[in-house]
Amino acid sequence: MGELPTNSVGVFLALLLCSCSLIELTRAQSPILEIYPKQEVQRKPVGKPLILTCRPTVPEPSLVADLQWKDNRNNTILPKPNYDPLYDSKGNRKKENGRNQAPMYTETLPGENLALMITSLSVEMGGKYYCTASYANTEILEKGVTIKTYVAITWTNAPENQYPTLGQDYVVMCEVKADPNPTIDWLRNGDPIRTTNDKYVVQTNGLLIRNVQESDEGIYTCRAAVIETGELLERTIRVEVFIQPEIVSLPTNLEAVEGKPFAANCTARGKPVPEISWIRDATQLNVATADRFQVNPQTGLVTISSVSQDDYGTYTCLAKNRAGVVDQKTKLNVLVRPQIYELYNVTGARTKEIAITCRAKGRPAPAITFRRWGTQEEYTNGQQDDDPRIILEPNFDEERGESTGTLRIANAERSDDGLYQCIARNKGADAYKTGHITVEFAPDFSHMKELPPVFSWEQRKANLSCLAMGIPNATIEWHWNGRKIKDLYDTNLKIVGTGPRSDLIVHPVTRQYYSGYKCIATNIHGTAEHDMQLKEARVPDFVSEAKPSQLTATTMTFDIRGPSTELGLPILAYSVQYKEALNPDWSTAYNRSWSPDSPYIVEGLRPQTEYSFRFAARNQVGLGNWGVNQQQSTPRRSAPEEPKPLHNPVQHDKEEPVVVSPYSDHFELRWGVPADNGEPIDRYQIKYCPGVKISGTWTELENSCNTVEVMETTSFEMTQLVGNTYYRIELKAHNAIGYSSPASIIMKTTRGIDVIQVAERQVFSSAAIVGIALGGVLLLLFVVDLLCCITVHMGVMATMCRKAKRSPSEIDDEAKLGSGQLVKEPPPSPLPLPPPVKLGGSPMSTPLDEKEPLRTPTGSIKQNSTIEFDGRFVHSRSGEIIGKNSAV
Q: Pro residues: which segments have biased composition (predicted)?
């Protein structure tokens, strides 16, 4: 072909350009519908809201009509209704948040856009949706979009805390829902779990762990992934191994005592700590809700404030935790304390059989025995070994919980009468009750056989008392000269009482009443008689003998023997009359009386004097005749009598009696005041020496005796003695005449006990510590100041020493030196001065000690010196006197 002309090419290009513009213009003017988002396939998760917007793209938007959405079933989706009824079809008012709402609806948006609203996307809503409209009533517009749904990863059963049980297989639950189906894998404590062994098995609903152990605890991770959607989600699960409860301590049988508190423990272990409850099997009641019961669910302790007999039965201890439940049964036996419900007093006759019966109840049936009141020895079952007359017969009824005990006494005696204690005993406790056995017997006067006769004198009334022992009480009658006294109607005989005691009051106005009387006692078992005598009493006869047994210068002791014949009444006292022998008048004699059981001592006599004595005895009737007249002389004044120590010695075999001191280091010596023999006692001399017995011979230790003298006292405490040592003690009394003969005793101290005293660690208080520290600081300052004074003549002590050595006149002269005045010798100071200081090592005596005139040692002659004052101190130098700053 030949080349086109240039003009032709231009025309072609122009035509091409016009064609393209026409095509573009035609295209721009074609009406269409657009859906946003623009993807033709929308993949959305189920359960999520969704909005699709349909927008008409037309030249004239006002020509668009019937814009609407159609669902996947080609049904027109209606717009959201503006009116929502307040009541449902049944006439019930709807809640504000419970009104029905369409799952999808359309809503017109600004700009003539129509939105499809899906509140919650479901699987059924997947499919093709269309947006349609008409344009200019001539053209139908339509645009489609496909919604594809998928299910996101959702944990349907995957608790974050799971608790397997020890020793069992357990599935760690992790159920996941997703569409498409997810893949599951597991991690433990961040590491992947290997399923190559039989320990772990991955299942559709979780991870199976075989034979769970405590080591399987940890943090497990369930990881779900959807490959198609790329979704990955993890679930952290905490696994804690629980242990089933186990009851470790519960007795098979429990025993409680009726009326007393009771406690029992049911111990269980497990993880978590099990909660324990007690169930009574008979009623299936949790006893924690019952009266008198308290249960601690943590410790398993059940307490009963007061046990009742109805609490008997079987109980179940229930231990429960999240891993399981375990129970164990126990039986509660209620011990019913014995109760004696029958014990009667019994009465029987002497020589007959007497039986006393005791009945008691309790659970178990109590054992019954008896014992005499006041003794601890109990009778044993059967015949008694020490008394075959007594037999104890027991009887038990376990089913009814009752017991009977009978104590039989054959051939009863009066000694069997008294109180008997019944004892009922079982495991619960003991019960006691006291009964009385009365042994009846005929009247008896054996207790009155030894009674003396009754005496009367001077027509005094006499009381003859008759007491008959007998059960039942006896009736008493009095007889005189064979006749009943009550039938005599004698006013001088009066009967008071008819039994068991009866008194016969006799008024012996004549001698005929001094005779015998008979008391007759009678009861249902017999009669007894007792003869009584009423005698006339007289004053005592002469004293048989009275002889002196001990004479002193001022006292006389007698031995008195009573009258040879007893005239009825006992001797009440012995009397003595005494006077000087030269005095013939007994009316001026001295009198003294003694009781029969006291020493007969006459005191206050004069030395070297002869006395006359006579003696008489006294009874209730009066004083007998004087007799046993005798004369005795007192000796001259002499040393006191031997003092008598007031100690009770102990004698072993044939050895000398020894007084044992209760102490090891001291002993109190006591003595009675002896007779002074005419001169008062002024002091006592006590000598005590330690010693030993060698071959039965007493040997005193040399230079170990102590001698002391005491004034006006009757006791002395010996101190600083040696333990387990014998001492011979001699005691003398002294008066103006001299010393008495010594009274000697042997005394032994007890064995000494060495007491070891543990030195307590002294604890200083804070104040004491501060004081010690302050004292140490002051002492240190004192030492430093002393060193400064000695070495450099400075410090507090040096200043005080200089001030002490300078008199007021010296101080005044120093002032004069400072002012230029002449230095003069100071006058003698009236103040006391210290002694001169030693010079050159030679001693100097004070003026009071001088024996020779004062001599000036060589080298101590006074030399010229120079004194300078610099305005603060005075300086002294030996040598020529050079007047500096001086007026001379």
A: 825-837
87-131 per-position pLDDT tens digit: 667 777 766 554 567 889 998 888 788 999 999 988 889 999 999
Identify whether the C-beta of residue 528 lies closer than 8 Å to the C-beta of residue 535: no
Helix (H) or strand (E) holding 363: strand 354-363
The alpha carbon torsion through 364, 370, 374, 377 (nearest 10 deg) reads -90
Distance CA 434, CA 430 (A): 13
Report whether the peptide linkage leading into residue 832 is cis, meaning its omega lies within 30 degrees of zero.
Answer: no
Residue 591 lies in a domain: yes
* 419 and 468 fall within a common domain: no
Which of 633, 655, 680 is the last residue before a domain boundary?
633
CA pair distance 494, 461, nearest whole angstrom: 10
Burial of 420 (0-12, 13-18, 19+ CB in 10 A): buried
**652 Cβ partners below 8 Å, 6+ apart?**
658
Structure tokens at 98: 């419970």
Regarding whether 34 and 137 lie in a shared domain, the answer is yes
Q: Rounded to whole angstroms, how far apart are CA atoms 237 and 253?
A: 46
> With b meaning 16 or more CB within 10 Å and e meaning fewer, what string describes 635-657?
eebbbbbbbebebeeeeeeeeee
Task: Residue 84: count other Cβ atoms within 10 Å of its Cβ.
Answer: 10
Same domain, 42 and 143: yes
Q: Is the pLDDT of residue 21 over 60?
A: no
Closest CA to 101 of 125, 118, 121, 123: 118
Q: Which amino acid is at 698?
A: W
Q: Are 642 and 740 in contact (CB under 8 A)?
A: yes
Q: Are residues 359 and 295 in the same domain?
A: no
The whole model's pTM is what?
0.45
d(CA 816, CA 808): 13
| Residues 661, 704 share a domain | yes
Q: In a 10 Å sphere around its CB, with 0-12 CB exposed, 13-18 middle and 19+ buried, how is residue 210 labelled?
A: middle
Greatest C-alpha distance within the chain: 223
Q: What angle do CA 408, 412, 414 make, to 5 degrees?
A: 130
Which one, of 234, 223, 268, 275, lies nearest residue 250 by Cα?
A: 268
Give the list of residues 6+ apart from residue 303 with CB closer than 8 angstroms, or none: 261, 262, 263, 293, 294, 295
CB 290 within 8 A of CB 266: no
**Cα–Cα distance for residue pair 321/272, rounded to 1 Å:** 6
Q: Residue 834 and residue 844: Cα distance in Å, rounded?
A: 13
Six token digits for residue 204: 């559709």
Domain that holds residue 125: 28-85+99-151
The CA-atom distances, in angstroms, between 198 and each of 193, 207, 222 are 12, 12, 19
Q: Is residue 279 part of a domain?
A: yes
HEC assignment per residue over 39-63: CCEEEEECCCCEEEEEEEECCCHHH
Q: Provide the 10 A C-beta neighbour count for residue 674.
A: 21
Residue that terminates a domain, selected from 275, 303, 334: 334
Query: Considering the domain boundaries, does residue 353 fall inside one?
Result: yes
* pLDDT tens, position by position, 389-433: 999 999 998 878 899 999 999 999 999 999 999 999 998 789 999
Reduce the secondary structure of 146-195 to three states and give it as a string: EEEEEEEEEEEECCCEECCECCCCEEEECEEEEECCCEEEEEECCEECCC
Number of domains in the chain: 7
- Phi/psi of residue 747, nearest 5 degrees: -125, 140
**Rounded to an integer, what is the distance from CA 364 to the centroid of its chain?**
36
> How long is the chain?
888
Which CATH number covers residue 311? 2.60.40.10
pLDDT higher at 583 or 428: 583
Q: What is the DSSP string of 552-616?
A: -SS-EEEEEE--SS--SSPP-EEEEEEEETT---GGG-EEEEE-TTS-EEE-SPPTT-EEEEEEE
Is residue 678 in a domain? yes
Asked if 674 and 733 touch (Cβ cutoff 8 Å), the reply is yes
Q: Quote the tokens at residue 763.
A: 């604890």
